[in-house]
């Protein structure tokens, strides 16, 4: 079970780290899509959220402060869903991408909450 727990942590954390690094090197086209978000200062929030994703991923990989990191991820995902994905669903050009992202991030939100409850830190 310990090996499965480790594999699960890696499979959960690595994509968040990759997404975090990609936030630091966003393309102009993607940043322009953020103009439609309801999040204030969205251009700067991209960089800050990327750094926070990387920190949360490292915390999960090292099995330190996992509960805090997963609840932090859940909060971030909730903000992303409500301020970016839902508003983008009302823009015809972005509907398909927003719909898929909404479903994906909702699933990750649930997983983050479950992990924060069930995955305990090493003593």
Brief descriptors of the model:
123 residues; mainly alpha; 79% helix; 0% strand
Explain the overall architecture.
This protein has 123 residues and is an all-alpha fold. The chain has one domain (2-118). It has five helices and no strands. Helix 1 (2-24) packs antiparallel against helix 3, helix 3 runs antiparallel to helix 4 (66-88) and helix 4 (66-88) runs antiparallel to helix 5. The longest helix has 24 residues, at 95-118.
CA(first)-CA(last) distance = 17 Å
Helix content: over 70%
Radius of gyration: 15 Å
Shape: globular
Structural class: mainly alpha
Number of strands: 0
Number of helices: 5
Q: Give the SSE string.
A: HHHHH
**Average pLDDT score:** 86
Largest sheet: none
Question: SSE layout and pairings?
Answer:
Elements: H1 2-24, H2 28-33, H3 42-62, H4 66-88, H5 95-118
Helix pairs in contact: 1-3, 3-4, 4-5
Compact description:
The chain has 123 residues and is an all-alpha fold. It contains five helices and no strands.
């Amino acid at each position: 079970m310990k090996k499965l727990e480790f594999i699960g942590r890696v499979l959960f954390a690595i994509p968040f780290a990759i997404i975090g690094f990609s936030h630091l090197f966003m393309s102009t086209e993607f940043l322009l899509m953020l103009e439609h978000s309801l999040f204030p200062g969205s251009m700067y929030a991209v960089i800050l959220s990327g750094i926070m994703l990387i920190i949360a991923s490292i915390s999960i990989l090292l099995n330190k402060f996992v509960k805090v990191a997963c609840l932090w991820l859940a909060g971030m995902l909730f903000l992303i869903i409500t301020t970016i994905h839902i508003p983008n669903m009302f823009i015809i050009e972005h509907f398909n991408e927003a719909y898929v992202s909404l479903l994906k991030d909702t699933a990750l939100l649930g997983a983050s909450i479950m992990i924060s409850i069930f995955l305990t830190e090493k003593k």
